[in-house]
Specification:
Helix 3 (about 40-50) packs parallel to helix 4 (about 85-95), helix 3 packs across helix 9 and helix 8 packs across helix 10. Helices cover about 35% and strands about 15% of the residues. The protein has one domain: NAD(P)-binding Rossmann-like Domain (Rossmann fold). The N and C termini lie far apart (about 70 Å). It is of the alpha/beta class.
């Protein structure tokens, strides 16, 4: 039997940080979270726990033991289960009145439905998923939806905010139709991590394009959720924000002891030119 707790009770401990009026406003807001694994699971949970009343989630993948180290929906009880199914149960157990729509991935034939009525797109797709990501950002920009991506790297994270009026996803990452998937992923990686704050203690985050794997730890995944959920809450409430849209990039690394906001004015094109100039002859 499902207990019908009032919204006022569920979110009463937020008052003082947000107002009653803001809580009512959050009830009417909807976020889209493509990807329900390493960061998407906690993105969605954090924002539902902060009062967001509607969520669209999408993922076709299942949990496995290789996810135990960092994906908070992964356990011995969920191996083999769809990530989106597990997340759906989790979110509805927090707020049974949640408006939740579940999708089996995002494709050209359902992207409009996935983004319908959405206030903020919280990108949580796997690093190696590039074409659906391009599709999502392109369509979100066309219909005026802001998008945010926070990527865990080492013991830190980066945040990129794409406003519909600022530099586009494809322009920032210098992505063109004539590039193959690997070229696009390389540009994506360069643009995600322009300052390489982890380089003081880590040679490489070990990107493996063949096996489509990258090293990550749970604390960095939670940090990425802190960045995304804080940004998203502020955006939904129309609060003044420290975060600026791309081409500004925000990076934090606790192991390196640094928090930086940097202007990448020419996007990946400029970053690659700088790398070429720094390369030894």
């Amino acid at each position: 039997m499902v207990q019908n707790y009032s919204r006022e009770l569920i979110y009463s401990r937020m008052l003082g940080i947000v107002s009653e009026q803001e809580l009512h406003l959050l009830a009417e807001k909807t976020i889209a979270v493509p990807g329900c694994g390493g960061v998407g699971y906690t993105h969605a949970e954090a924002l539902v726990r902060m009062g967001v009343g509607g969520v669209h989630i999408a993922d076709f993948d299942t949990f496995g033991p290789e996810n135990f180290n960092r994906q908070f929906g992964a356990s011995i009880h969920t191996v083999g289960r769809k990530k989106a199914d597990v997340l759906r149960e989790r979110l509805l157990s927090i707020n049974p009145a949640l408006r939740l729509t579940q999708f089996d991935g995002v494709r050209p034939d359902n992207v409009d439905q996935f983004l319908s009525g959405v206030d903020v797109l919280c990108d949580a797709l796997d690093y190696f998923v590039i074409e659906p990501r391009i599709l999502l950002y392109r369509r979100a920009r066309e219909i005026g939806i802001p998008a945010v991506i926070a990527c865990p790297i080492g013991f830190g994270g980066t945040l990129h905010y794409f406003d519909p009026q600022s530099m586009s996803f494809e322009d920032y990452f210098s992505l063109t139709n004539d590039m193959d998937e690997t070229q696009k992923l390389i540009n994506f990686g360069i643009g995600l991590d322009p300052l390489r704050l982890h380089s003081s203690y880590l040679d490489s985050p070990k990107l493996d394009f063949t096996k489509q794997k990258v090293a990550s730890v749970s604390s960095a995944c939670l940090l990425a959720t802190t960045l995304t959920s804080t940004f998203t809450l502020a955006k939904l409430l129309n609060r003044d924000m420290f975060f600026k849209p791309v081409p500004y990039v925000h990076q934090i690394d606790y192991m390196a002891g640094r928090f930086e906001q940097t202007l990448v004015s020419e996007g990946v094109t400029g970053l690659k030119s700088a790398m070429e100039l720094q390369a030894p002859c």
